[in-house]
User: Which sequence fits this backbone?
């Protein structure tokens, strides 16, 4: 589904990604871990098409198409979803209205007719149950005055609504208490299928207790320095990142 | 320039949609302004002697006044002698009903989405259509007459209801009020008049649609609304003009007189030609709008969506004279390219327990300047007066300006006044968030701006709220920066 080859990117003349290689197949969950400043969030942003980052080299192919050649909205319409680390507030615009606009633009891109109000509401009700979110929250202005947990849950709700092929969750666990973490993880698990893939960007192992990854990668200084199965995450939890750093400097 | 800036730029540089002209033969006065021109206008309109006298007094007063320099706008000096003060579409016979109206005129309004013909009329809205200096048609007149509501052109009201005009004209905005109000009093040509009798709730929206068509012409209309005891009316004003290279002057006066327990809601969607991207041409919109809550328990509410004009200078105000009366002002003012706006309100609290509420949302894009100027004055007698003001500014790009000039005068220590103000920039983060959900940049800006202006837009009558939303998006098209 996603193939990243030698991806290098910079921001403000500072190179952050130094040649990332990653293969993600449909049905897989990949966890990208690493110490602060290793380039985890940059990788998520570059895949979503954030313009502050300049791609210097490398290729990214998504379902056979050149992802880097697409505008951010085109990537979204093709099925790339980014759950933001810091979801943005848009005053005066309800989540319902926001989702309706997004969904219909995506449908238009796929040559499907716009959903009428009734069918939209039906879909919404269904997805609300999936992520255990209350309609009153969705009628409020997008993320405005939401608690940290509500914001993250709202991200997962949007993911459920838009049914992406590739979901990138950028530190979705940060700032969540254990109950909120369980709800969010539960939502993601329900959305897993053999047709879609998930990339979890996280600093801590605890999210991976609830969303079991197929692959774990350690990012350090803009490169994937170690890959393994879910047990790698446990090893990191026990030993910390210094162990990986030492290994890298030795080699 | 970042890519976001480019998109903002594209988004705000969309062409003006109503820039066409209609080929209508016009009956005009010669250029210039003097007492003879005023006599010419008055004679054309077959006015009574007292009205001509009033005009001449206003003119003589005007010649002694100087143009105000305090607004935060700049423009080259206006040559008042280089303007045509009367222009009427030439019609072979005076139209008695719509069948007699020149089809070209009907087409003009149809092109603007305003149907004057019976079968296609906007349901629930009565329209007075004013082109250049005169009213060409008023719809639903008979239906309204059954309830005793008078809704007609100002010219017709002078002929048919001279007592009402004589009593209320100038009672809220005297000709001595300010430079442009004096000019208007001297040369006003038409406008709308509306009277709602005691206890009557007007069953439909009343609306005046203004269109400037002829070149070199100023438009000086006067609107007078009188709401008798316990009555209610909702009034809407819309306006457009062709694209022309020179600046055209629009100096209107609106007066509202609200008696005991009456309510008047006045909404404006102003879309005069704003000039081109380089700031050439456009309408100078110098308007005086004021209402008096003369009776106890009365209420006047102004809602404005200002998107057009090269320069806007207007402060729809309320004089809260009656005890327990209420004044409201809801405004969205959008400026783009080289537009300038200095707009706001005045709330003058005279009566006891009077309340006012001000919600102003400014949006600046391109190289425009947008100022809010508002005054809240609590007079000595106004015990327990309350005011709440909120002034927000939204900036798009980094070449525009937003300014706030609030003035608060309190002479009674029981008053309670709140003022909130914010300034924000349309965030690249907000736009990227929308893009990441598959929403294109233009829709993203429209979404964000409409969300920002929501509190004001929801005050508009339903049909117009939709129009206003589209207009906001259109005005800002090309401005994402």
Assistant:
């Amino acid at each position: 589904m996603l193939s990243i080859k030698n991806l290098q990117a910079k921001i403000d003349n500072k190179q952050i990604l130094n040649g990332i290689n990653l293969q993600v197949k449909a049905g897989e969950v990949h966890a990208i871990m690493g110490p602060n400043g290793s380039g985890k969030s940059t990788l998520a942003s570059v895949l979503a098409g954030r313009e502050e980052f300049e791609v210097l080299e490398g290729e990214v192919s998504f379902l056979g198409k050149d992802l880097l050649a697409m505008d951010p909205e085109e990537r979204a319409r093709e099925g790339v979803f980014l759950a933001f680390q810091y979801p943005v507030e848009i005053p005066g615009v309800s989540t319902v209205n926001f989702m309706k606009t997004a969904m219909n633009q995506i449908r238009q891109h796929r040559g499907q007719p716009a959903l009428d109000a009734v069918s939209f509401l039906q879909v919404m009700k269904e997805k609300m149950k999936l992520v255990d979110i209350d309609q009153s929250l969705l009628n409020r202005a997008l993320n405005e005055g939401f608690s940290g947990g509500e914001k993250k849950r709202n991200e997962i709700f949007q993911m459920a609504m838009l049914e992406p092929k590739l979901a990138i969750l950028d530190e979705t666990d940060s700032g969540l208490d254990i109950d909120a973490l369980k709800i969010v993880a539960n939502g993601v698990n329900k959305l897993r299928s053999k047709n879609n893939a998930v990339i979890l960007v996280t600093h801590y192992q605890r999210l991976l207790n609830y969303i079991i990854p197929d692959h774990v990668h350690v990012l350090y200084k803009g490169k994937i320095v170690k890959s393994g199965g879910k047990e790698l995450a446990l090893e990191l939890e026990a030993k910390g990142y210094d162990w990986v750093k030492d290994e890298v400097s030795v080699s | 320039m970042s890519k976001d800036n480019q998109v903002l730029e594209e988004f705000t540089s969309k062409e003006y949609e109503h820039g066409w002209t209609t080929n209508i033969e016009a009956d005009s006065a010669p250029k210039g302004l003097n007492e003879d021109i005023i006599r010419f206008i008055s004679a054309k309109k077959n006015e009574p002697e007292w009205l001509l006298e009033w005009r001449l007094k206003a003119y003589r007063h005007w010649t002694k006044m100087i143009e105000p320099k305090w607004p935060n706008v700049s423009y080259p000096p206006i040559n008042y002698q280089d303007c045509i003060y009367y222009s009427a579409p030439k019609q072979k016979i005076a139209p008695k009903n719509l069948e007699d109206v020149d089809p070209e005129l009907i087409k003009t309004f149809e092109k603007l989405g305003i149907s004057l013909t019976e079968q296609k009329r906007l349901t629930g809205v009565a329209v007075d259509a004013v082109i250049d200096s005169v009213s060409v048609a008023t719809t639903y007149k008979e239906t309204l007459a059954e309830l005793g509501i008078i809704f007609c052109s100002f010219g017709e009201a002078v002929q048919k209801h001279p007592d009402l005009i004589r009593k209320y004209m100038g009672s809220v905005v005297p000709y001595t009020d300010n430079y442009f109000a004096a000019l208007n009093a001297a040369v006003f040509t038409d406008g709308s008049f509306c009277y709602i009798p005691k206890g009557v709730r007007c069953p439909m929206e009343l609306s005046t649609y203004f269109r400037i068509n002829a070149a070199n012409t100023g438009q000086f209309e006067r609107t007078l609304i009188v709401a008798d005891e316990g009555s209610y009316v909702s009034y809407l004003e819309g306006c457009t003009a062709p694209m022309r290279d020179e600046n055209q002057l629009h100096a209107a006066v609106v007066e509202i007189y609200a008696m005991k327990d009456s309510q008047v809601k006045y909404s404006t969607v102003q879309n005069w030609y704003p000039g081109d991207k380089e700031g050439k041409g456009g309408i100078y919109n110098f308007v005086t709008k004021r209402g008096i809550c003369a009776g106890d328990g009365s209420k006047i509410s102004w809602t404005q969506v200002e998107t057009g004009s090269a320069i806007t200078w207007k402060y729809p105000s309320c004089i809260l004279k009656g005890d327990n009366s209420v004044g409201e002002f809801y405004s969205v003012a959008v400026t783009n390219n080289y537009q300038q706006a200095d707009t706001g309100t005045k709330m003058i609290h005279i009566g006891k327990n009077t309340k006012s509420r001000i919600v102003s949302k400014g949006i600046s894009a391109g190289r425009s300047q947008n100022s809010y100027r508002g005054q809240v004055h609590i007079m000595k007698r106004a015990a327990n007066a309350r005011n709440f003001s909120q002034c927000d500014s939204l900036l798009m790009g980094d070449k525009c300006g937003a300014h706030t000039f609030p003035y608060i005068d309190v002479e009674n220590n029981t008053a309670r006044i709140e003022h909130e103000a914010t300034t924000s920039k349309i965030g690249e983060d907000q736009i990227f968030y929308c893009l990441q959900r598959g929403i294109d940049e233009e829709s993203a800006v429209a979404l964000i701006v409409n969300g920002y202006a929501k509190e004001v837009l929801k005050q508009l009558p339903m049909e117009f709220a939709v129009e206003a939303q589209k207009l906001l998006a259109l005005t800002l098209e090309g401005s994402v920066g």
Observations:
- The mean pLDDT of chain A is 91.
- Chain A touches chain B through 30 residues (CB under 8 Å).
